[in-house]
Design goal:
This protein is of the alpha/beta class. It has helices at residues 48-61, 83-89, 109-122, 136-146, 161-171, 196-213, 234-238, 285-289, 337-350, 376-388, 414-423, 453-459, and strands spanning 7-11, 17-18, 34-38, 98-103, 127-131, 153-157, 175-179, 216-221, 241-246, 253-261, 269-275, 278-281, 300-307, 310-322, 330-333, 358-364, 396-398, 401-402, 408-409, 428-432, 446-450.
Length: 460
C-alpha cells in the first residue's frame, strides 16, 4: 500500500500550502521559500450527516447587516503612559487589538513593553506578562532597574500555547504581553517551535482571544538577518498593528516606526533614548539629531524631513574626494544609495559639476534613516559644499525634491517645516519657490525660493 502523506509544504512569506516542493511560490512569487512541515491533524466531526446539517444550520444563522446597523463599541483608547508610543499607535491602545513588535536582538523591545506594563499597572489595570525566553528572576532584575511595580502586574513563564490560552481566559487581563510568539508551542502541531505551522497556530489563537475577550495583546517577534519578522508573512497580515524598532543597539537612540496600523497612520515615528533605567522619550528629536554638529565645516547642511505630522531636522554630511582607482566608490548611510547616484548624475548633467572621478560618501548624522524626497536638496548642497570646499552657514536650512531636469519641486507641509526651523534658531531657509507663501515671510526667518539646482548653488 502507498505510504500516506503526513507532511506538506508551506511558503514562509505568504503561508501558501502545497503538496509538493516548488521553487517559486505561485501566490507571492518568492523563490526558495517553501519548507516541509508535518500536517496539522484534522478534527473529527460528528459524522457526514451531522457535519452537513451543522453546516446548513450555521449558514442559516449567519445574516449580513447593513453598515448603518453596525453598533459602535463604547470603549475608547487608553494611554500607555509613554507619549512616543501612543503617537505611533495612533493615540493610544485600542481594546481588543493585536499588536506585533519586532526588532533586532537587544534593541529594547522587552524593556519598552515592561515599561508599558509598569505604567498600566500603576493605573490599576490588569496586566499579564507571558515570557517564553526569560525566567521570573531575570524579569525581576530588569524590572528593578526600570522602577517600582504594583501588584496589578502578573508574570507567567510558559511556552505551552494551550496553557497560556487557559490563563488568559481565566485571568482576563486588559493587556497581555507575549514574549515572544516564536517560543509558543502547541501540542496539536507536531513541528518545532518557531516553525511556520506553530507561528500560524499561535497567532490565530491570540487573534481569537483578543477579539472575543477584548484583551489587548502585544506580540514580540524575532527578526531575520534581512530585518523582517521571522515566520510567514501571514503573521503581519493577521495582526492589527506592526511596529518595528530601528537603530543601532550600540547607540543611545532608538526609533519606533509603525509599518501597519488599522487604527491610525503608518507615517508616525517615536524616538527614544536608551538609558540605564530603560527607554526615555525624546520629545524634540530635531535638537537631539543636531547635537554635536560641526561649525564652519564644508560638506555639512541641515535639512528638514517630515515623519507623519512631525518635522524632523537632520544633518546631512557629504565627503567628496578624488578616487585612487578607476571606478569611484559611492557609499550612503541613512539614505538610499540609488537616490544618491541619481542626484550626483543630475549635478554632473545640469550643473556641470565633475563628480565622475570622485569618491562620494553620504551620511545622515545620528544613524537615522530618511527616505523622504524632501531631503534631495540637502544632499545636493552637501555634495556641492564638499566638492568646492565651501562651508554652508550653520543658520541655513534647506528642503525640496530634485527632479531629473534639475528642477526643485514642491513638497508637502512647507509651513510646518519653516516654523520648526525658526523655533530652533535658524535664520535662512532655502526651499522650492512654488512653496513660498506670504505667511512664511512673517515667521521671522529669511525665505529663499529656488526653482532649480543652479539657483540653489548660487545661494550658498
Amino acid at each position: 500500500m502507498a505510504k500516506s502523506k503526513s507532511t506538506t509544504f508551506f511558503c514562509q512569506e505568504c503561508g501558501y500550502e502545497s503538496a509538493k516542493w516548488m521553487g517559486q511560490c505561485p501566490a507571492c512569487h518568492t523563490w526558495n521559500s517553501f519548507v516541509e512541515e508535518p500536517m496539522a491533524p484534522k478534527r473529527s466531526g460528528s459524522g457526514a450527516n451531522g457535519g452537513a446539517n451543522g453546516g446548513r444550520m450555521s449558514a442559516r444563522a449567519a445574516k449580513p447587516v447593513t453598515l448603518s446597523n453596525v453598533e459602535m463599541s463604547g470603549q475608547e483608547r487608553f494611554s500607555t503612559g509613554i507619549g512616543e508610543l501612543d503617537r505611533v499607535l495612533g493615540g493610544g491602545i485600542v481594546p481588543g487589538s493585536l499588536v506585533l513588535v519586532g526588532g533586532d536582538p537587544g534593541i529594547g523591545k522587552s524593556t519598552l513593553l515592561l515599561q508599558v506594563c509598569r505604567n498600566l499597572a500603576a493605573d490599576a489595570r490588569k496586566v499579564l506578562y507571558v515570557s517564553g525566553e526569560e525566567s521570573l528572576q531575570q524579569i525581576r532584575i530588569r524590572a528593578e532597574r526600570i522602577g517600582s511595580f504594583t501588584d496589578s502586574l502578573k508574570l507567567l513563564c510558559e511556552t505551552d500555547l494551550e496553557t497560556v490560552a487557559e490563563v488568559l481566559k481565566r485571568e482576563k487581563p486588559e493587556v497581555a504581553i507575549i514574549d515572544s510568539v516564536q517560543t509558543m508551542y502547541s501540542e496539536e502541531v507536531s513541528s518545532a517551535p518557531g516553525s511556520v505551522s506553530q507561528i500560524r497556530q499561535a497567532t490565530g489563537l491570540f487573534l481569537q482571544l483578543a477579539k472575543s475577550c477584548g484583551i489587548t495583546i502585544f506580540l514580540v517577534g524575532h527578526v531575520t538577518k534581512e530585518g523582517v519578522v521571522a515566520g510567514p508573512r501571514v503573521l503581519e497580515h493577521m495582526v492589527d498593528c506592526v511596529l518595528y524598532f530601528e537603530g543601532d543597539r550600540h547607540a543611545a537612540y532608538r526609533v519606533l516606526r509603525g509599518v501597519k496600523n488599522r487604527f491610525g497612520s503608518t507615517n508616525e515615528i517615536g524616538v527614544f533614548e536608551m538609558r540605564r533605567e530603560g527607554l526615555a522619550e525624546v520629545p524634540n528629536p530635531s535638537e537631539y539629531m543636531l547635537n554635536g554638529k560641526p561649525e564652519g565645516a564644508s560638506g555639512s547642511v541641515v535639512a528638514c524631513s517630515i515623519e507623519g505630522t512631525r518635522p524632523i531636522l537632520v544633518e546631512i554630511q557629504a565627503l567628496i574626494c578624488k578616487t585612487s582607482f578607476g571606478l569611484p566608490r559611492r557609499t550612503a548611510a541613512g539614505a538610499d544609495l540609488n537616490r544618491v547616484n541619481l542626484l550626483m548624475a543630475v549635478l554632473e548633467k545640469r550643473a556641470g559639476l565633475g563628480l565622475s572621478s570622485c569618491d562620494a560618501y553620504i551620511n545622515i548624522a545620528g544613524g537615522v534613516r530618511m527616505n523622504e524626497p524632501a531631503i534631495d536638496l540637502g544632499i545636493i548642497l552637501a555634495i556641492v559644499s564638499s566638492r568646492k570646499e565651501i562651508p554652508i552657514s550653520d543658520k541655513t536650512i534647506c528642503f525640496g525634491e530634485v527632479g531629473l531636469s534639475g528642477e526643485v519641486r514642491a513638497v508637502s507641509m512647507a509651513l510646518q517645516r519653516v516654523q520648526e526651523a525658526r523655533r530652533l534658531g535658524f535664520e535662512r531657509c532655502i526651499m522650492p519657490r512654488v512653496c513660498v507663501t506670504e505667511s512664511m515671510k512673517h515667521e521671522g526667518i529669511e525665505i529663499i525660493g529656488v526653482s532649480n539646482v543652479r539657483e540653489a548653488m548660487e545661494r550658498i
